[in-house]
Structures are given as C-alpha cells and as structure tokens.
Amino acid sequence: MKIGVVVVAGGRGERMGADVPKQFLALSDDRCVLEATVERFAEALPDARIAVVLPGDGVDKWRRINEEHRFDVPHVVALGGATRFESVRRGLGALPDADVIAVTDGVRPFVSHGLIRLLTEDAAEYGSAVASTPVYDTLRRRNGEVSEKADRNEFFTVQTPQVFRGDVLRRAYEAAGDGDGFTDDASVAEAFGIPVRYVMGERSNMKITSPEDMAVARAVYAWERAAKRG
What is the dihedral of CA 74, 12, 104, 44, to 10 degrees? Predict the structure, then answer.
C-alpha cells in the first residue's frame, strides 16, 4: 500500500502577528514548526511520500531553513493556491499513485505517531478516518440580544490529520468545482456523498495560530525532546 501525506502550509498567519508565516517560526534552535510537523509524519510512516504545499514566496525560505537546520527528511514541494481547497488539490496532484492520503495542517506538530497510524489503517479499511474531539467547554448560542445554553454533546471539534483512500479523495476534489465554502477535507468528501468516519483525536494535537499557542508549543517541544533524551 502506497501512503501519501499532504502537509498544507500555505497560510500567511495574520493572527500570529509575526514577521514570517507561522509555519516557519522556530520551535527550537534547529527546527521550525513545519519541519517538526513533517518529521512527525516521516517517523510515523517511514515509507510514505510527503508533499509539502507552500506559497510561491515561501519556497526559497523553506529551503534556506532546511539547509540551516540540516533538515533532510525526504519530501516534495508543491505550490499552494489562493485557498486551502486549491492548495490541497495541488498537493494531491503531487501524489498521483498514493492508495491512502493523509491531509494535515503544517502547524500541528504534536499529533502522535499512534494517532497517525490508526487513522491511516482505518482509512485503508473503511475509506476515511478523521481526527475529532468532544467539546469540553460550556457552549452558548446567540439569540438576538441574549444567549442560550447549547448542548455540547451535539457538537465536536474536527482536527487534522484527515485520511482517505486516494481514489475517493481525488474524485471528491474533482467533483467540488472551485471548492467555494469548503474549509476541510471531510466537508469535501461529505458533499460528494462519501461517509466520513470520525475517530477520537487528541487534545494535545494543537493547531498553532496565536502568540500564546507558540509559547506553549515551544515549551511542549522542549519537554518532548528532554523526555526522549531521558
């Protein structure tokens, strides 16, 4: 079975307020966020072909960071589009013969090896497997000038990786036209009539979007490395 991984890293990261896109921010002296994410998948799926999707003006920077950090994890680079949908579609084009394809955010560097493998195995068997978690906070629903309590048991959050059989995901993206309104791969698949299997994800599988997230991520990454050395 040929496994492909699309790592989507085409965002600008305006909410981060940094001088560079968040995927290029340093987690440590020798790893940026995106390198750590790619490395995590290469460790979990050593035979997978990895496509990193970048904005056109980010390719040279990515290569410079790789050289500086001596980052040699094998991967191919695909140019991203104006939307996440188009970036994923271009990433799929770089993996034409993959039987199973995982799509993940380039700024989720802490997904566990176990979850990556579980999702990949489930997708191979059932056609799809998407990481999700329950809602733990109390929810309120706006109703005009007031709010009312919402039943959190009716909701769940969706993460990446989102993993599908390759032929299924390609057909769904081909049928979705320009992808207007789609924000993740599960939505594209469901619009095409594909049942999506939601699998328990991990609260530690954080998506780095803010300066506060970045501070937490650096601490977690340092702790993980110290634990490995220990």
Answer: 40
Bridge partners, 99 (sequence order): none
Nearest to 41 by CA among 6, 82, 93: 6
Q: Fill in the DSSP letter of residue 177.
A: T
The model's pTM is 0.94
Six token digits for residue 216:
């937490």
Closest CA to 38 of 106, 130, 96: 106
Q: Higher confidence at residue 140 or residue 76?
A: 76
Which residues have C-beta within 8 Å of that of residue 196, sequence separation ≥ 6? 128, 130, 186, 189, 190
- pLDDT tier at 28 (50, 70, 90 boundaries)? very high
In 3D space, the residue among 7, 26, 25, 9 whose CA is nearest the CA of residue 17 turns out to be 25
C-alpha of 206 from chain center? 10
